[in-house]
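Model it.
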Amino acid sequence: MAINVADGGIKNYHNYFVPEDFLSRDPRTRTIRLRDGQRGVYASEDFITSLHAGLDEEVGDASNLVMYKSGYEWGVSDMKRFAEKMRHEFGGGKLDIWQMNRKFVLESWWWPLTTEGWGAWAIDFSFEKQGMVFVTIRNSAVAKAMEQVGKPVCYMYAGMFAGVFSVFDREERGGIEVQCYSMGNDCCKFIIGSQKKVNAAEFWRREGASAKEIMEKLVD
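Modeled.
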């Protein structure tokens, strides 16, 4: 599937390597905006920690669901915004994201988030035929802000990935974290797929299975 910037696409700056490439600051209003005009905000580690602690105090175990749903809505909204941007920037105003190279689209979506401090990611498409995608995150903003608690904490990431792939695949997806930095691991791992696959992964995670064991069970 060809991607031709010159064929009706936007012929200016495309790539972002540092936050200053992607964000602009208005000293008069003290606001932060993305290149497409969307409002941005800085979130410190203290804010992330306090947000999770406050939710846990207010709603208990339901706080995980709140963070997941928040991430999901963010993912859906952000991918719809991004899809329109890609359609005009690389699709010549004609091609939609699902008509472009899948890896290129998703890497283009995540890269600005890397520059903003959300971590580096890797996507494994090896098991797409089984209806699953595996995502690895290093330096998760949430996990780094939290203590070593021995359980997954990146529910917002899981929800965000579920929302993004739901839009991209045009089919409802779920997401679950099966390995987390807060459990003493060097990175966080997520599975994105049908809700049936996610429910199975959650069951095996509760049973104490490792990320590798869960992935092996799901692809059998």
